[in-house]
Amino acid sequence: MTFTGETETIEYKTSTGELKVACNSIVAMLNKHGIGTVYFGVKDNGEVIGQKITNDTVRDISRVIYESIKPQIYPTVAKVDIDEKSIIKVEFNGEDRPYSSKGKYYIRVSDEDREINPTELKRFFKQFDTPENWEAIKSDTPSDSYEKDSFEDFKTKAVEAGRLPVVQEPVVNILNRLGLTSGDYLNVAGNLLFGTNPGIVLKAGIFATEHKLTFIDQQTKEGNIFQLIRFAEKYIMQNIHWRSEIIGFERIETPEIPAEVVREALANSFVHAIYHADTNHEICIYPNRITIYNPGVYASPNPPDDYIKKDIPSVIRNRIISKILYLSHDFENFGSGFKRIDSFCQDANVRYGYELMQTGFLFTLYRSSPNSVIESVSDSYVNSPNNTSNNERSADLTETEKTVMLIMQMNASITREELSLKISKTVRTVQRIINSMKDKGYIQRSGSKWKLLKQLPSDDSH
To answer: Is the pTM of this model over 0.90?
Structure first.
């Protein structure tokens, strides 16, 4: 196989023996375009010749790039097999121009790397001079007061993704290298990402109908970005339907909405948010859809559809935050988020939509089974046919009775008064509903708890 020729964003090297020279090319492409790709195991004319790749090859490439290029970048380094030949593909991007390799600056001209002298450097990069970014402003949180679990979560994922080299040094030093400190304090971005009290609020709720009228569960969480992303992902995945399939001799559990879509949508929500807005992050789970809202108007002049149909650079509102979530593999800052979501959704036959609002951005994922049971709110409860004494359908229940049964399933000890508040009905009406459900054989009282005798209807077999 032969690739097309080298360009201003593509460079070929015959082997990793040219790694140091390749760093010059990386810097040149970053300074010119902010993005690029280098292949090792490919001749200048694009002929794939392959090279020997050991377990340490990818790690060594990451280390040399990390040590040679300033400011530090965190490329994606991957082994690729083409026609039974192995090559290395290095993808990178960055906006902290100008970049240097071993103290020297380069610019990409056609397929060549030209060194820039100091006078040219000053003139060329004047266009990139910008006021201090709000993310870099010093916060009130000391740099050694980071939230340890969040940082370890980030570090583990970043190392596994090959985007952060394994280094044995104090955490504060790593935070400083990542641009998350200002003196002895975390900067604003560092505090939002890893702080113990950054002031970010996430509201999450499950609603019994297609409107915000009757809620089954409602929670407000405060934490840093990593804590809230993990909470939101868990909250959604625990409260959607899962289908069981036997493939070969293995039982496979498949969610109605791909986990990759949920992760991508959540990461984009936190990357593109405005953190001093008047509204909060919000997750709403309805019977027919899930909505993910982030405060802050849509950041790009290009509509989301353009990112699906075209290959265009992303517009990043919060550069430091996006860089850290890119390193942890939560976010791809090549403008591929919508394209990835579209691909996963098409594969899983999931519809989605979005709304550009005056206060923020609302992303919607439509559920496949709008009338089916919400699985669980807590870690300890998992709904299955074995949780009921009868697997009959509840086709003769009214919509309100189905809602009450669903709430009882979540909280077997709920009182009439609490049900009244949940469904916005009088206690007298609630009692009539309970009597009807008893007469139909769906519930009975067992001490201080409600016992469900039949299963709620579901379009899926579970």
So the answer is: no
